[in-house]
TrEMBL record:
One of its GO terms (molecular function) is kinase activity. The keyword Kinase applies. Keywords: Kinase, Phosphotransferase system, Sugar transport, Transferase, Transport. The keyword Cell wall biogenesis/degradation does not apply. This is PTS glucose transporter subunit IIA. Residues 31-135 form the PTS EIIA type-1 domain. InterPro entries: Dup_hybrid_motif, PTS_EIIA_1_perm, PTS_EIIA_component. Gene3D superfamilies: Glucose Permease (Domain IIA) (2.70.70.10). Pfam families: PTS_EIIA_1 (PF00358). GO terms for cellular component: cytoplasm. Its main location: cytoplasm. It comes from Bacillus yapensis. PROSITE patterns: PTS_EIIA_TYPE_1, PTS_EIIA_TYPE_1_HIS. It is found in: Cytoplasm.
């Protein structure tokens, strides 16, 4: 009854940067799957190092067998894909180390994956890291935060209204 009178409270979710680096617009990612938002909206980050941390409080849904990507979900249902580099699946896990397993509970700054950035630069198409909201269609609003340079687990990159 009261929710009808006062409306449902807005549910805002903050997505922090999963890596130290520089923000790159998705449209500039050299892969149409990400650039054209086929998997969802988000941002991309040119990493300054090889440590990927949790950008949210939530749970690990999936660590890909090749450890080049991780799927996360917030308590309010925002689904996030962090994809380390482009065409890194072909590296078959070489240079990647997972520090969490599916089902783990995480908070911003918890280490998820480390990777050999020099090896990714040598063997992959790019080391850029897309951070994608895979259930974009279910979100009321996704807003990109204006900072160009970001610190892992500390700086906000997306603000989402569920």
């Amino acid at each position: 009854m009261l929710s009808k009178l006062f409306g449902k409270k807005n549910n805002k979710v903050t997505i922090f940067s999963p890596v130290d680096g520089e923000i790159v617009p998705l449209s500039e990612v050299p892969d149409p799957v990400f650039a054209e938002k086929m998997m969802g909206d988000g941002v991309a980050i040119k990493p300054a190092n090889g440590t990927v941390v949790s950008p949210i409080e939530g749970k690990v849904v999936q660590i890909f067998p090749t450890k080049h990507a991780v799927g996360l979900e917030t308590k309010s249902g925002v689904e996030i894909l962090i994809h380390i580099g482009l065409e890194t699946v072909g590296m078959e896990g070489e240079g990647f180390e997972a520090h969490v397993e599916a089902g783990a509970t995480v908070k911003p700054g918890d280490k998820l994956i480390t990777f050999d950035q020099a090896l990714v630069n040598e063997k992959a198409k790019s080391d850029v890291i897309p951070v994608i909201i895979t259930n974009t269609a279910q979100m009321k609003m996704i807003e990109k935060v204006g900072a160009k340079s970001v610190r892992a687990g500390q700086d906000e990159v997306l603000s989402i209204e569920v």
